[in-house]
Specification:
globular, five-stranded mixed beta sheet, D-Maltodextrin-Binding Protein, domain 2, single chain, alpha/beta, 15 helices, 328 residues
């Protein structure tokens, strides 16, 4: 935006007309968003996502202009990760978010309008157990660091797998970037996270003691949207998911190119990202009854721990069939 300053001379009519036209154009362009278009322009859709290798398809799509080629105006909105992405949708600052199932489900209790459109990746290997020096057996664990959602769920399942009562272990929830430092200081004995925080934990003197799949845990990453926005933008959301599905295929075919895109878009290390990509299954698909069953198990865990006050209506919030209808 710019302003007209008085100079003491009477501006010419032609100049005034030109300034008004330019000002109107600038203001109109700047306010275009997903709620509608101005002058026939494409609506802007913001996708909230975290910063790690699991978002490689979205980074690659943005880096290669795949959204633009599909006739879409999509902006990636990088947040801390975890519930922050879904919370951005709830707040209306983003229209779509990428969230793991165990992270999304508690947010669906807080905002019953959140809808899972489909899955675009899954893994039982990406999240790893890191233990500090001197912890030679899970039985020696007294404290663990954890992030919300998938981290907390996996931590409890890990302890149960080793026949340890989770209530006998102090679990300190924190942000991912703080947890390796907590391990180095000796504040915690271990944690379950993804890279680059796994590598940072090893650099801090820890060791990798396994992956979540070793004790029967996998996560599924969903694309979420608010139902109110979705009702008016089904076709747009479908086109976005089509781009993500194509990007999934490209990531699988060329992990190095995807790692380079992640470096450009999110400053992630190329070598570490490429290694992490090999541990993730990038495949877009519709939600199924198996997703409902898995989600119910996660919800039961969250309710049992008093982390959510009620269960989301899984038949309503998980849109089975949506992907096949709009994103095929």
């Amino acid at each position: 935006m710019f302003r007209h300053h008085r100079t003491g001379r009477r501006p010419r009519t032609a100049l005034l007309t030109l300034l008004v036209m330019l000002l109107a154009t600038a203001c109109g362009t700047g306010t275009t968003d997903s709620g509608g278009s101005v002058g026939g322009e494409r609506p802007t859709v913001r996708i909230a996502l975290g910063v790690d290798a699991s978002y490689a398809p979205l980074y690659l799509a943005a880096e290669r202009g795949m959204f633009e080629k599909a006739g879409l105006d999509v902006r990636l909105m990088k947040v801390e990760g975890g519930p922050a992405a879904a919370q951005a949708v709830t707040a209306g600052t983003a229209q779509i978010s990428a969230n793991a199932d165990s992270t999304a489900l508690p947010q669906m209790v807080n905002n019953p309008r959140l809808r899972a459109l489909g899955a675009f990746q899954s893994s039982g290997r990406y999240l790893k157990v890191v233990l500090r020096e001197g912890i030679t057996s899970p039985r020696r664990i007294r404290t663990m660091g954890s992030i919300q959602g998938i981290g907390l769920y996996a931590t409890h399942e890990y302890l149960r797998h080793h026949r340890i009562d989770p209530d006998s272990v102090k679990i300190q929830q924190s942000a991912p970037q703080e947890i390796p430092t907590m391990l180095q200081r000796g504040d915690i004995d271990g944690y379950i996270l993804f890279d680059p925080w796994v590598t940072k934990g090893v650099d801090a003197g820890g060791r990798v003691a396994g992956s979540i799949g070793d004790f029967g845990v996998t996560y599924v990453q969903w694309l979420l949207a608010d139902q109110k926005w979705l009702e008016k933008n089904q076709e747009v959301a479908g086109k976005i998911f089509q781009v993500v599905a194509e990007a999934d295929r490209l990531v699988t075919e060329d992990p190095h190119a995807a790692a380079l895109a992640a470096h450009e878009q999110a400053q992630l290390p190329v070598a570490g990202t490429e290694k992490a990509i090999s541990e993730i299954s990038f495949e877009a698909r519709a939600l199924t009854s198996a997703d409902v069953t898995s989600s119910r198990r996660i919800v039961d865990f969250l309710r049992g721990r008093g982390l959510i006050r009620s269960a989301p209506d899984l038949d309503k919030v998980l849109l089975r069939g949506w992907y096949d209808r709009y994103a095929r």
